[in-house]
Amino acid sequence: MAQVHPTAVVHPSARLHETVVVGPYSIIGAKVTIGAGSEVGPHAVIDGRTTLGERNRVFSFAAVGGVPQDLKYAGEDTELIIGHGNTIRESATLHIGTVGGGGVTRVGDNNMFMAYSHVAHDCVVGNGCIVANSVALAGHVTVEDFVILGGLSAVHQFTRLGKHAFVAGGSMVTMDVLPYCTAQGDRAELSGLNVVGLQRHGFSEEQVGRIKEAYKILFRSKLGLTEAVGRLTAELAGQSEIDYLLNFIAQSKRGLTR
User: Fold this and answer.
1) Is 5 annotated in the active site?
2) Alpha-carbon distance values, 237 to 57, 116, 229, 243 (Å)
3) Is there a catalytic annotation at residue 139?
4) Quick one: pLDDT at residue 1?
């Protein structure tokens, strides 16, 4: 049996691994599944069709699996799927998906959601991301692996943030942020590359050098985007970090933060 405090309210249909710990006054709904080694702090609420993997920590007053803040939502049986090793701090909110967005809000592994951060319906958050205090992700946002969002920043719906991007505190992001880049301001603009982040994640000097050259071609060559992509493809395609960058550009629908 899970270690459930006597004051907590856990629905009989909820599925909790025997190693789960549930603190005082927390509420866990009927369609919730929580994996091994996870801990739910006092006064937290986990509801909806929500699955948490192993070794997650949910702190006080967090609201996980709530219904979307979307006027089109009409009670459909959508869900929130959270991976392993995530930290969800005080008063953070993560919502289930909507039918219009595929029905699933999805979070990967080893992410940190700091106090008062918000993950809206149908978002996809990768692995190893840091979402700082009071960050707001609107609906349908995609945050790829190892992205850092500084405190009080916000991301417009349907926007994508590429791997290893860094969004400075207080930024308002309305267009896709390329992988490896730093964005800041209202409305956010690129301010360079996240070189420190790349080095911390094991990128070689050669890889960082190619990314720097790609950045110069895209944003400092005075070429239009189509011409710049053509030149980048001709000169550097075939390298994994460059091919990923080119693919990200090709899939952009909102346009790119420049």
Assistant:
1) no
2) 41, 41, 10, 6
3) yes
4) 83
Q: What is the pLDDT of residues 76-93, one digit of tens each?
A: 999 999 999 999 999 999
Residue 52 pLDDT: 98
pLDDT, tens digit (0-9, with 9 covering 90-100), for 204-227: 999 999 999 999 999 999 999 999
What distance in Å separates the CA atoms of residue 232 and residue 202, rounded to the nearest whole number?
23
Active-site residue, 121 included: yes
What is the reported pTM?
0.97
Which one is catalytic: 95, 121, 156, 164?
Answer: 121
3-class state of residue 225 by DSSP: helix
Task: Give me the DSSP letters along 36-55.
Answer: TT-EE-TT-EE-SEEEE-SS
Rounded Cα gap, residues 117 and 139, in angstroms:
14
SS3 category, 233: helix
Q: How far is CA 249 from CA 42, 101, 219, 245, in A?
A: 44, 22, 13, 6
